[in-house]
Amino acid sequence: MPDVLLTLIMPDDVARHVEDLLLSRPDLVPGFTVSAAEGHGSVIPLVADTELVAGHAPRTVIRTVGPESAKREVLALIKRELPRANVFYWLIPIIEAKHL
Fold this sequence. Notes:
alpha+beta, 3 helices, globular
């Protein structure tokens, strides 16, 4: 099965829980990258006063590459263990992934 890129975007307070889940399953996620982001738009609820002033909400992005079946298992794991986590995701095919 070809490799895919799984991108997860979530509120910062959810990120540690998702990271812990990923770290608990090295068979599905041998590695991942985490970065900070800003959520903008009508689908992003702005709650804190600082978010209302800034016009965006802090988000965490987690990316991992691997077999599609493993990444779908990751999604099922997150859904099962953190059913109200508010994680947005997408899967895209990878043409090539190697170390240089």
